Amino acid sequence: MKDKICFSVVIPVYNKDPYILRAISSVLTQDYENYELIVVNDGSTDGTAQIISQINSPKLRVITQDNCGVSAARNRGIQEAASDYIAFLDGDDEWLHGFLSEMAVLVSKYPEAGIYGTNVIFRFADGSMNSNSYDALFPSGVNDGILDDYFRVFYTNALSPFCNSGCCIPKRIFQELGAYKENVILTEDTDMWCRIALKYPVVFSLSPLLIYHLEIPSNTTTLMQFEDFEVSKMLQAALEGDIVPDKFRASVTKFIAFQQLSLIRRAILLGHRKFSLKKLLDWRILNNYPLQFVFLLCCILSPDRLTSFLYGFFKRRDRKFGCKL
Fold it and tell me: Taking Cα atoms as reference points, which of 205, 297, 223 lies closest to residue 267?
């Protein structure tokens, strides 16, 4: 049955000429044959279009549009997709050989799920690689399954167990819940995953089948928004609208607090102390993260030396857990 499952692979790309060939090649060399590849060139101004044009494959379809942002590019790929299951890969990441085969297995085993993801291998600037262990999520010897509480897994591990380059979403989910929000720059992917997790099972495989390249600078690292992240606003509205299932209400509340901490850390590191203090005075942070509350308050009220220490601390955390600011 799994061989009959067809995927549309969507790669949104903007100015990734050093990496796009690697990403596309990692799809075209998959050991699973039943897929199409849609590359959405989001108005690249470097050599990306020329590199793509030199690739000759009947599976490849290239769509060119004006630069509208990564969410718009992903949504264009979703609109163009001919298959029932859509897998995403960013233009600077790469899949291992068996990624789509694993997705087909997961879809066959858990057809009711709203999203499927695999573990990630993080590659750092010095060439070293690391993959987080999530063995505790499932019984011994079990490699995949439905996560009991995606929100709890996220905040417990300080990041999602999968990322956008390592997930697959049924097209019917987008038709029901809507696509990626195009006016959102930060947490647009987390917002999508959480909208799904509120209503559908989230399936995860312990197998690390994606290489996520942390050595490549992120264009969102220095971005700052002076309002709550979109995912926080969405989940708060869901709580107030009584949309969150009872079994998730406590974990969603703590997840919002975790996202607020992330926003505050970003603001501190970018020098916005007044905004940081305003956001820190939130009962959810004090209730769920009292030690972090005190620590961040000291950082806000202390000289730059302590802020530098904070920056170093989170850099070390990023190295350990494979996440960015």
Answer: 223
pLDDT digits (tens, 9 = 90+) for 200-259: 999 999 999 999 998 776 656 667 788 999 999 999 999 999 999 999 999 999 999 999
Whole-angstrom distance, CA of residue 277 vs CA of residue 257: 14
Nearest Cα to 100, choosing from 205, 213, 212? 205
CA distances for 267 relative to 101, 264, 278, angstroms: 41, 5, 11
Tell me the HSE value of 231 on the side-chain side, using a 13 A CA sphere. Answer: 28
Separation of alpha carbons 184 and 124, rounded Å: 27
Bridge partners of 167? 117
CA–chain centroid gap for 27, Å, is 19
Report d(CA 129, CA 100) in Å as an integer.
22
DSSP 2: G
User: For the chain, first and last CA: distance in Å?
Assistant: 41
Given the structure tokens 């379809």, which residue do they identify?
Answer: 61
Task: Please say whether the dihedral angle defined by the alpha carbons of residues 201, 206, 207 and 213, taken in this order, is positive or negative.
Answer: positive
Query: Which domains are assigned to the chain?
Result: 2-213 (3.90.550.10), 230-321 (no CATH)
Distance CA 284, CA 137 (A): 26
Task: Give the pLDDT means over successive 10-residue stretches in the chain (325 positions).
Answer: 85 96 98 97 96 96 96 97 98 97 98 98 92 94 97 96 96 97 92 98 98 77 82 97 97 97 91 92 93 90 66 55 44
- pTM (2 decimals)? 0.91
What pLDDT shows up at residue 49? 96
